[in-house]
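[INFO] parsing input record for NADH dehydrogenase [ubiquinone] 1 beta subcomplex subunit 4
[DEBUG] input buffer:
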Amino acid sequence: MADELNRFSGGTPAFEAHLEKKREALRRALRAEYLRKNFKPVDQSKFHGHLFDSAFYRWQAMQATRGQYMYPTMAGFARVAAIVIVPGCFFTYFLIKSRRDRHARFRSGVVAYDDEERLRFQRNL
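[DEBUG] output buffer:
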């Protein structure tokens, strides 16, 4: 009858309950140690008030020396050229071309002396 009760009632054997209590005590102790070290480092630290985290210091050193390891490559140049140099050159070329064409029309007499297009550019100067 005891076997049927354990099988249907879902009871935990006494040994497993004892092990679970030990695990819970260990979890509580580890949690308390973690909280003590992270929120009161002066008590536990031999580094005078802060914990030494080697991964953090490695990451910080990498951030500080990033500029020393930035090698110029063709891919980097292509990115800069595509974002800065090429659009600037196109804009400058078309700006100069439109100004030359406009001044050529003014000089050749295609645009009259008192034409609205000519007066518009005189007002903006």
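[INFO] The chain has six helices and no strands.
[INFO] shutting down worker
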